[in-house]
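Quick start: read one record
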Amino acid sequence: MSLTLLGTILIVEDSPSELELMSHYLKESGYNVIQANGAKEALEKALSNNPDVIVTDVVMPGMSGFELCRSLKRIPATQKVPIVICSSKNQEIDRLWAMRQGADAYVTKPYTREQLLRAIKSVAI
């Protein structure tokens, strides 16, 4: 049985175990996955790979997921790419702040495979 690729997802996550788990969920569901373990690497990969959706953590060394959101929305080549924030920050203020920074959806950790896929499908064009 061959899987039709649903699209390319760029995952930005500094925790190797989280990155692995998320990649597994998405690959198993038919997505092509690109990994970045920090925001600076994510910016480069977003420009060179044209992902369909970007899923990012918030708390990362160097540049936060919120800052990454702002940067991506400022660059013409990436400003229309939907962004899903995946964070352990579960306060309403965090969710609102994420949307103000340009995020299109917000998933809190720990999440189920279904919650992650639903968030991606809700923003995918």
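The longest strand covers residues 7-12.
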